[in-house]
């Protein structure tokens, strides 16, 4: 059984800790003397807006036969190479996705899939014998016996069989020399049966997700459905762009910085609950610029940072028209002046630069870090990129795009649907006597504990998500799609927290008597079927989860009951070393 396999994984970690500390420590020793001032100095030395924003190569995830889209097979590898994040920064060693080493990029190529046309991807690991970043072997981690960097790929937001989900335990090293206990196949099948929308793929290896993503193992994925997309007349072709935002810190030699000392080093020598970079990169460039013309642009914005929230706005007050969030369109566009993105969250927006009153527009960030009560962003992390607005040229085609009046009918939950189950999902953070974080659990359980959630394909559930930590958390669920319908503050929070810490039972702790504080409305631009929802601290967030295809109300056309199942987790900690150990919970159908 998987539970027994997971127990063996943890035992393996303990058994080989002495061996691997030296491996992880080699990188850590090289970065041990770096201070926060050093990192700020390096980032501050990089002049903003001197590198043009690149667009990643697009790979078509389907073929054509007799005018019909048909399934194909792709092979995408993971490679180590160097990448120029800035004109004035030395080339940086990175891990990146690509069809070959020369074409691999940070972030990886954008895969353009077609609705209801399966795509088969063989993911190959060509990474070296050791990691380029430090990691902590004292938390549950994929540790191969013979060296190598474990990886596995998760297509975030996709509805697919469990064997293709990228389980943290399905990791493998270069050439499939060693494989985790849940590994079953080299080629993943993505049915692409869900509604059209924006997804992304990224590493998901046990205990190495943060390090592997920081190194560059991430990329965008789009499911297109022409009969839905085309009538909206949204900006397309060269006016349809991805913005993949990720904060990174750099050493003087250009290499990526990751902390080598943990916040509680006597417990976890390297692990820290969050990573905040000093430089803001977009599509692999630090503070880039983009030349735009006076026309509408579609911007698919992904926050691929580990822990940093972005509250973005345009410096000259141009409105942002939100048409989609994560892997779904909205019912109708929503116009906003600013947009809050949690880690792993995607917003699909239109900006009309023909209405720009200025020739230059900065994309700014005002989100505190940690969010929502941390430090305000400074002159470096308060800026993201710049748009340079130029007049339309005589050869530019006319802009016939629109911001549509209506989009899709299935997006919003206007009334609470019938649910088969109500669950309480509680986020805990555990601290040292001096207030340092040591681990975070959902419902007081570790990843390797027995499964507690067993939803059924074709059903809808109501989850009451209770955040007893001090930070906002982006909750992500594999396979299902969900949306928040209510956020209500807890009163007498300390008394409730004390009770929950003692008995770990929301009903016995009278949650209904505490969830009577102010109700914060769910933003209109988040009222659709999402893959990430923001869970504010000290609140109960009511979440409707659909374990089915939301546009057709059908069950999944594959077996959801197979091993290794699926997980849900906080995505700050999903991208942390050993899942912030662990803040992941498994579920089976």
TrEMBL record:
Is Endoplasmic reticulum given among the entry's keywords?
Answer: yes
Q: Which is an annotated Pfam family here?
A: Cu-oxidase_2
Its main localization is endoplasmic reticulum
> Where does the record place the Plastocyanin-like domain?
150-227, 280-357, 443-573
Q: Enumerate the Gene Ontology biological process terms.
A: cellular response to phosphate starvation
Instruction: Name the source's superkingdom.
Output: Eukaryota
Q: How does it sit in the membrane?
A: Peripheral membrane protein
Where does this protein reside within or beyond the cell?
Endoplasmic reticulum membrane
For this UniProt record, give its keywords in alphabetical order, as a comma-separated list: Copper, Endoplasmic reticulum, Glycoprotein, Membrane, Metal-binding, Oxidoreductase, Signal
| Cofactor field | Cu cation
GO CC, alphabetical? endoplasmic reticulum membrane
Q: Does the keyword Endoplasmic reticulum apply?
A: yes
One GO MF annotation is:
oxidoreductase activity
Give the record's family classification.
Answer: Belongs to the multicopper oxidase family.
What's its job? Multicopper oxidase that may play a role in the maintenance of inorganic phosphate homeostasis.
Q: What is this protein called?
A: Plastocyanin-like domain-containing protein
Q: Which organism is it from?
A: Oryza nivara
Lineage, uppermost ranks:
Eukaryota, Viridiplantae, Streptophyta, Embryophyta, Tracheophyta
């Amino acid at each position: 059984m998987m539970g027994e396999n997971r127990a063996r994984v943890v035992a393996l970690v303990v058994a080989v800790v002495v061996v691997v500390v030296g491996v992880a420590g080699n990188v850590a020793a090289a970065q041990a003397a770096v201070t926060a001032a050093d990192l700020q100095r390096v980032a501050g030395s990089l002049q903003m807006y001197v590198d043009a924003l690149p667009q990643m190569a697009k790979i078509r995830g389907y073929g054509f036969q007799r005018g019909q889209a048909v399934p194909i097979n792709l092979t995408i590898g993971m490679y180590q190479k160097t990448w120029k994040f800035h004109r004035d920064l030395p080339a940086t060693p990175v891990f990146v996705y690509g069809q070959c080493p020369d074409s691999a990029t940070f972030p990886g190529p954008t895969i353009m899939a077609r609705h209801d046309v399966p795509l088969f991807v063989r993911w190959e690991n060509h990474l070296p014998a050791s990691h380029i970043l430090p990691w902590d072997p004292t938390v549950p981690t994929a540790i191969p016996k013979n060296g190598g960097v474990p990886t596995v790929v998760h297509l975030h937001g996709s509805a697919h069989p469990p064997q293709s989900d990228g389980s943290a335990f399905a990791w493998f090293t270069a050439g499939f020399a060693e494989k985790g206990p849940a590994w079953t196949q080299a080629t993943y099948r993505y049915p692409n049966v869900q509604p059209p929308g924006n997804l992304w793929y990224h590493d998901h290896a046990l205990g190495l997700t943060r390090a592997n993503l920081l190194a560059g193992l991430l990329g965008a994925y789009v499911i297109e459905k022409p009969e839905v997309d085309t009538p909206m007349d949204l900006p397309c072709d060269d006016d349809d762009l991805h913005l993949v935002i990720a904060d990174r810190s750099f050493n003087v030699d250009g290499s990526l910085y990751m902390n080598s000392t943990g916040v509680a080093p006597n417990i976890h020598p390297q692990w820290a609950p969050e990573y905040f970079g000093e430089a803001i990169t977009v599509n692999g460039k630090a503070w880039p610029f983009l030349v735009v013309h006076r026309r509408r642009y579609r911007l698919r914005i992904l926050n691929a940072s580990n822990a940093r929230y972005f509250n973005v706005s345009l410096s000259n007050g141009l409105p942002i028209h939100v048409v989609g969030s994560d892997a779904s369109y909205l019912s109708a566009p929503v116009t906003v002046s600013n947009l809050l993105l949690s880690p792993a969250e995607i917003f699909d927006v239109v900006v009309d630069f023909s209405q720009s009153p200025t020739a230059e527009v900065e994309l700014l960030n005002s989100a505190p870090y940690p969010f929502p009560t941390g430090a305000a962003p400074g002159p470096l992390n308060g800026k993201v990129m710049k748009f340079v607005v130029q007049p339309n040229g005589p050869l530019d085609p006319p802009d016939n795009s629109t911001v549509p009046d209506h989009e899709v009918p299935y997006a919003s939950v206007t009334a609470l649907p019938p649910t088969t189950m109500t669950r309480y999902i509680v986020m805990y953070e555990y601290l040292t006597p001096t207030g340092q974080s040591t681990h975070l659990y959902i419902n007081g359980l570790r990843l390797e504990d027995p499964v507690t959630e067993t939803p059924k394909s074709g059903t809808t559930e109501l989850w009451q998500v209770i955040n007893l930590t001090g930070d906002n958390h982006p909750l992500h669920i594999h396979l299902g799609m969900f949306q928040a319908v209510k956020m209500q503050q807890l009163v007498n929070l300390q008394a409730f927290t004390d009770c929950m810490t003692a008995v770990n039972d929301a009903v016995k702790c009278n949650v209904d008597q505490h969830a009577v504080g102010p109700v914060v409305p769910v933003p209109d631009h988040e009222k659709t079927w999402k893959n990430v929802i923001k869970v504010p601290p000290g609140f109960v967030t009511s979440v409707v989860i659909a374990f089915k295809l939301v546009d057709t109300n059908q069950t999944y056309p594959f077996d959801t009951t197979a091993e290794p199942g699926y997980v849900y987790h906080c995505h700050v900690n999903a991208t942390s070393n050993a899942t912030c150990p662990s803040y992941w919970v498994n579920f089976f159908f």
